[in-house]
Each structure stands twice: as C-alpha cells, then as structure tokens.
Design goal:
Elements lengths: L2 H15 L8 H12 L4 H19 L2 H10 L3 H13 L2 H28 L7 H4 L6 H18 L8 H9 L2 H12 L3 H28 L10 H46 L5 E9 L5 E9 L4 H9 L9 E6 L3 H37 L4 H11 L3 E12 L5 E12 L6 H15 L3 E6 L1
Parallel strand pairs: 2-3, 5-6
Antiparallel strand pairs: 1-2, 4-5
Length: about 450
Amino acid sequence: MNNRPKRMLQNFLHDKFNLDEDKASQEEVMENVVKGVEFRGTNLWILIFATFIASLGLNVNSTAVIIGAMLISPLMGPIMGIGLSLGINDFDLLKKSVKNFGFMVAISILASTIYFLISPISTAQSELLARTVPTTYDVLIAFFGGLAGIVAQSRKDRTTTVIPGVAIATALMPPLCTAGYGLATLQFNFFIGAFYLFLINTVFIAFAAYFVVRFLKYDKKNFLDKQREKRVARYMAVILIATFVPSLIVGYKLIRKTIFDSNVERYISHVVNFENSQLIDHRSHYHRKGCEIELIMFGDPISNDAIANMSAQLRHYGLLNTKLSVHQPTEKEQIGFSILESNVEQILAEKNNQILSLEEELRKYTSDTLPATEIAREMAAIAKAVHNVSISKSITYDKSGNRMDTTLMCFINTKEENLTALEQETLSNWLRIRTNVERVKIYVE
C-alpha cells in the first residue's frame, strides 16, 4: 500500500514529461535535418542576404533588424546535422554537415567583412560590442536552446515558434558579422571574441542535439572499428571541454566584476556623505590582484582621519584588497572654482533680469490687443450712422527707442449720413473707457 502513492507520482510525471506521444519517426527527422544541411542555391543566397541584414543592424545598432537576420539565417541546419550524425554514428552525414557548415561560416565572414569595408560607419555600437565577450551564460543559452531546437525537430508538428525562437536566443549570425567587423577594421580582439562566441553556440547546440538523440534512443549505425568509435567519443569530450573552460573563466571574471561594481555603488551611497564636500565623480578599477576606487571631491577638504575611516569601512562592503584614493582640489583650485562659481551666478542673475524684462514687455504688447469685433458692434449700436470700423493702437517712441505713449486710432466709414459732433464726442469718450487708452483720435469718411 505504501508504494501506491509513489507509483501514482511516477505515472503522473511520466505522463507529463513523456516525449513519445507526438514523436516523429527517425526516418522523418533524418529527412528533415538532411534537408537543412543542404547548402546551395536558395540557402546560399538567403545566408548572404541575412549576413548583410545582420551587419546593417549591428552597424546602426538596431535590435529589430538583427533579430530579423537571425530568423532568416539558415545556419542552424548544419549544426543540427552535426549533432544528429554524432548521435547515430552516421559519418557520411557528419562529413556533409561539417563541410557545408565550414563553407557557410566562410561565406558569412567574407560577406560581413566586405560590408564593413565599404560601410561609412566604423564606430563599434553597443549591439556589436555585446558579441565580443562570451561567458558561461552563452554556453547555457546555446545548450538549452539546442535542446529546445532538437526536441521541436523530433516532433510531428513542426509549425511551432520553437525553431525561430532558438535562432533568436542562440544568436548565431551576429557573432559571425562581428568577426567580419574585426577583420575589416583590423581589430583582431573583436574577431577572436566574436568567433569564440559563435564557436560556443555551435558546439553546445550540436551537443544538445547529440544528447537528445541519444535520449530518444534513435537507432545507431554500428562501427566496424570500435577503436574509432572510442576516438570519436574522446574528440567530442576534448572539443566540449576546450570550448567550455575558457567561457567558464570569462564568466567567473564577469560575475566578480559585476559584484565589485555593485559593492562600490553601495559603499559610495552609504559612506561618502559629507556636509560641506560633494562627490563630483568616481571611478572603479577591478583587477584580480587588487582593486581601486577613485573619488573626486569638491568643497571643504576631507581630513586624513576621515579618509582613513572611509578606507577602514571598505571591508564591510565586500571590498577586500581595495585601495581608496580621494582627489581634492588644492587651495588655489578652490579659489578658481569659487571665482568661476560667482561669475556663473552673476551671469545667471543678469540673464534672469533680462528674461523678466522681456516678459514684462510681452505682457504690455499682449495687453495692447483690442477686442475689435466687439468694439465694432458696440459702436454701431451707439451711433447708427457707423457702417464699418477700423481700429488699432499706435505706439509713439522717442529717438532712443523708448516707448512714450499710445494713441487709439479709429477710422469710421458711414453709409449715408455723417456723424454729428456730439456722436463723435460720445464715441471718443466711450472708447477711452472701453479700451483704457487716454488719447483717442477718430477719423470719419
């Protein structure tokens, strides 16, 4: 009775994780993978176009363009072929896959090198720089991406988004284009880093395919020479280790550098706080043998005791074997900064006064705006003889350009009868009150 829950759990897990339910036949998978290994005609041109698209994306720093190139690229086919052929001991397929894969790599690097040779933009953008420092994370991405890819290839239904997703995640095309950039600009550190990243992706995608093929228990071709089979297994192990170990070292250094930078930021936010001194900038230098933090301060000088106390607190923030350097301006530099600061404040004060003066002038002009439509209607109601009205303000300036006075100019056109003197006087007095302008001149036609 005690074994029943255990069996139920086993049955449940087997049912959920079983890969046999929708598995395609080995012949069908082989046919599909072999088709992807083929490299001529359409596949060749698509690869060249994808290389140029990816190079353009790296050149203009466009993530969307790079993703598009990764979806187009047919590089995944030969890599899957290498993994499958190793898994079933098919050396004819292995030779074909390796041959086509090598040719595809050469074409991609050649096309990207040509592009970057003729491109007017030679600056390394962030998307390009991201493909030059491979780490252990790239190994894991390639391996799990390869697992997802070969499992999707072994299903009856291959219309899912797994294969395109794997192409994006493992990023085979961008490192090759970055390697081409390194050759075109003679920056061989770019070429080595990018090509190593591509090699990591290739080896571990192929290893993932090999692993799944063995897990699915595909029928293997028997080796007539058992010693040859052992040599192949040893070669695979050597390639995996030679690819993985350098990435492990780089990944370890990257993690240590990230932790160091985080500790530095935490240290500065908690420790470097002074009332009369301000942190202008800081620089951190990470080295395996010893790290350094440089602080650039401004304001009152920090005493040696305070600096010693700051240094003593480094170990509390995980900054062991770290040297603290504090750069403070000399007394002469302090005086220069003070003079500069006072000059800046004086300039700002003058600019603020100019702005206030202009705003005041603008308000005057804004207040000069007349509600002409309303005034015309009201004048016609006061004096029936008014037919149409033209009204404006005339501003008088002296010879120095200073504003002296404002006169309201009103031109009235009558229909048949003229305005009487009393009506003109009435309109003049009304306009003074209505527009708040003392000087009013009325002209009647």
